[in-house]
Amino acid sequence: MATCLSVLLLASAIQLLFERGEYHEETIDSISCYAEMIGDNCRAALAFEDAEDVEETLKSLKAESSIVFACVYTEEGKVLAHYQHPGLTDKLSPPICQKEGYRFENDYFKLFKQINENNETIGTVYIQLDLSQIKAMLWLKAGTITLIVLACSIVAYLVSSRLQRVISKPILSLAEVARAVSEKKDYSTRAPKQNNDEVGSLIDAFNEMLEQIQQRDLALIDAKNQLETRVKERTAELTNANQRLTAEVTERVKAEEKFRMLFEEAIDAIFIADVETGILLDCNSAGTRLVSREKSELIGKSQKILHPPEENEEEFSESFKKYISEKRDQTIETQVITRTGEIKEVAIKTNVLEIEGKKALHGIFRDVTERKQAEEALRTNEAQLSNAMKIAHLGYWEYDVADDQFAFNDQFYDIFHTTAKQVGGYTMKPARYAELFLHPDDRQVVAIEMKKALETTDPQYNRQLEHRIVYATGEIGYISVRFVVVKDKQGRTIKTFGANQDITDRKRAEIELKNTHEKLLETSRMAGMAEVAADVLHNVGNVLNSINVSTTVITEKVSESEVANLEKLASIVNDHIEDLGTFFTEHPQGKHIPVYLTEVSKLLIDEQAETISRLQVLSDNVQHIKDIVSTQQSYAKVSGVEVTTSITRLVEDAIQINSAGLQRHGTRLIREFEELPDVEINKQKVLQILVNLISNAKYASSSSEKEEKIITIRIYKHVEDQFRIVVSDNGVGISRDNLTRIFSHGFTTKKHGHGFGLHSSALASKEIGGSLTVHSDGVRQGAAFTLELPFKPAEIVK
Fold it and tell me: Which residue, 85, 129, 307, 701, is the most exposed by fewest CB within 10 angstroms?
């Protein structure tokens, strides 16, 4: 019993091991065949690094469902293209390129196969096969054999337990039948059962065994038939493979022809020279065009014919000697000479090939004359950009989070009145930067903003802030800082880029305005004239509104400046720092950079001129506020001061004070001025009234829904001793109820108004002997304010 069981188990184990080995050999042969076919089909594509062609070739593996992943590496081990079976849910990554070989790893079979061309490896094919189906089949067979062994063991046990009862004729009869079966091989013969004792059971078991053997015989016959069918199928597969190989050979011939065609039609010049003698063996059409010579003038000549005479030495040119000795597989830049003597700048990439048993130097010559010229133009443009940034008081910086370090340019140090050499270089730790340049009271504010930039999850995060700085001279200044962040794939901030602009002049003007305002309030308080203080505050407020508008325009101009794009440009140039020449001459984006830099420098110069102009307007307005303060301070002592002035000039001054707001709201101004002589008038009070009226008209017209905003100012003589100044608009108008209250103290229709302006203007007009009236046809019908004043020509007064 034990012997039978041992034999069955051993036979089953041997059968399983044999089938496992056979499956492994079939897998290796099959996948190797696929790898060779892929390699043959990809040789041409590898030569030109045509990823799309390789990817199409790899897609042919879709027919084999067990192949879950494949890729093709270049000679350098870089993945050129890969394929993943569409039914695979998990995304697989290409492994690192390895030497040729295979291995069975977990549930996968992995194979690396080199792609050779002229005994040189030009790439590698990698195929990954899913072994789960094969393992499942082997486990199924193992289970089946286990069941058969178990069934046979049970039968043997039953037979042996009944064997003791068989002693005579039944045994002989059984032996006779066994002999007959052995001699005739007729497994359909059965032993007759004579008794129902143990011998009868043995006979039954014997007959059952014959039945099983008969079934196995039939199964073996069926297996033989299946094997023959499989052999035929395998033969057919080999035939198809042979046909495919034949097709591949044909394709290879075509590929060689295609290579020759590409060699001739290549854009770059290609020369092939004998390593030992330096004699030119071949060249393409681009090569003949490069040196302006026919091929017959080059083939068979020394390679020295390609280079200027001063570079040639003995048998070989200096460049040729470098290629052979130390510059192989590298790109160097040198010069070639044409038949007419023209010198051209070229970049040469070389490698050594074996042609008909001889070593030859294969060189690719690229004309880089235009690139050299572009690099020179770039240097010029960079100088212009540097000047433009200096004019605009702009400095560029970046902060690397990993290194915890700032990097600055020269313009940055110019803002702080120092140089990189004086502070120890162009890089600096944040603590050092804060110690040298940040005002102690603003360091915490800057630290909070930097922390926000590092912790933000917004990839588009950008900020603008203003803070105090300390110049290298020890003086206090102000800068406006605008910066953006750069995130990695995990959303972490890895860098910040920014630009600083010196706004000290503007800040000082704002501080001076603030001080003047505070001084005005203190003067009014000390004089004890609450009404006068309210009047003064409103008049100053009108001028401050104009100043605020001008300041806003300047700020918007600075915010919308091309400096923000210079940050992006700096990032783009930094990304191509290794190949700037090629980037500026061949890249679609890089070709536009020189022209763009020229235009940006012009724009920055124009912006500087406009900013200076607006700062001058701010200075004039500040002076006007000083005049108002001075007049109001003497108001208690002098009831009225009249000076000779031009009415037209006075109105133009009021317009100029409001010009920034008028331009910002797109208001069209119509002047209807009658020519009048100079008059004696309280110039300061009239100016304050006109500034107030024009400001109100601007507000009314800008608040209306009409597309065109219009303000009309008229000057004309009304009667012999009076003249009028009328300020009208097409704005929101005044309701009938409000017409009677428009000049009341504290009455206003503005959202943020205080009701002092028109009230104080009406009082001022009465104080200088005139009047202020208003007319409106109703809401959305506009309004007209008429200032009527005494007409006192200067000549008559004198």
Answer: 85
Sheet architecture: strand order including 667-673: 667-673, 709-719, 722-729, 783-790, 771-775
CB–CB of 80/144 below 8 Å?
Answer: no
Q: How far apart are CA 664 and CA 548, in angstroms?
A: 12
Q: What percent of the chain has pLDDT over 90?
A: 14
Number of alpha helices (DSSP H) and beta strands (DSSP E) in the chain: 24, 25
- Nearest alpha carbon to residue 409 among 396, 423, 400, 398: 396
> HEC profile for 301-358?
CEHHHHCCHHHEECCEEHHHHHHHHCCCCCEEEEEEECCCCCEEEEEEEEEEEEECCE
3-state SS assignment for residue 90: coil
d(CA 64, CA 26): 14
Cα-Cα-Cα-Cα dihedral of 560, 562, 564, 565, to 10°?
130
Residues in the chain: 798
| Cβ proximity of 308 and 332 under 8 Å | no
Predicted confidence band of residue 532 (pLDDT cuts 50, 70, 90): very low
State pLDDT tens for residues 763-792.
Answer: 889 989 999 999 999 999 999 999 999 999
Tell me phi and psi for residue 786, to 5 degrees.
Answer: -115, 120
- Give kind and range of the element (H or E) at residue 364: strand 358-367
Q: What mean pLDDT is predicted for residues 106-110?
A: 84
- φ and ψ at residue 471, rounded to 5 degrees: -65, 165
- The pLDDT-based confidence of 529 (bands split at 50, 70, 90) is very low
Could you tell me which residues are beta bridge partners of residue 671? Answer: 713
**Helix (H, G, I), strand (E, B), or coil: what is residue 720?**
coil
User: CA–CA separation, 200 vs 192, rounded Å?
Assistant: 9
Give, to the nearest 10 degrees, the angle between helix 563-575 and helix 593-633: 150
Give residue-wise pLDDT tens across range 168-177.
567 777 777 7
Report the pLDDT averaged over residues 667-681: 93
* Tokens found for residue 509: 């003007």
Q: How do strand 709-719 and strand 667-673 relate by DSSP bridges?
A: parallel
Residue-wise pLDDT for 367-394, tens only, equals 888 888 777 777 777 676 666 666 656 7
**pTM for the whole structure:** 0.30
DSSP 8-class letter at 441? G
Do residues 126 and 97 lie in contact, with contact meaning Cβ atoms separated by under 8 Å?
yes
| Residue 567: closest CA among 394, 437, 339 | 394
Distance of CA 616 to the CA centre of its chain: 41
Identity of the residue numbered 283: C
CA distance 97 to 103: 14
Q: Which two tokens stand for residue 583?
A: 């980037």
**CA-CA distance, 480 to 50, in Å (whole number)?**
50
Q: Is 642 exposed, middle or buried (0-12, 13-18, 19+ CB in 10 A)?
A: middle
Measured between alpha carbons, how far apart are the two ends of the chain, in Å?
151
Structure tokens at 303: 């390679």
Chain segment 393-424, per-residue pLDDT in tens: 678 889 998 899 999 988 888 888 899 889 88
Angle between helices 2-47 and 198-265 (to 10 degrees): 10
Tokens representing 376?
């020179």
Per DSSP, the three-state class of 674 is coil
Tell me the C-alpha distance between 45 and 496, whole Å.
Answer: 42
In the DSSP assignment, the letter for residue 730 is S
The arithmetic mean of pLDDT across residues 736-745, rounded, is 86
Q: Could you tell me the sign of the dihedral formed by the alpha carbons of 634, 636, 637, 642, in that order?
A: positive
Cα 204 from Cα 192, distance rounded (Å) = 9
Instruction: Find all residues with CB under 8 Å of 424, minimum gap 6, and list them.
Output: none
Do 193 and 201 form a contact (C-beta atoms < 8 A)? no
pLDDT at 467 over 80: yes
Examine the pLDDT at 514 and tell me if it is beyond 90: no
Q: Could you tell me the two tokens for 1?
A: 């019993």
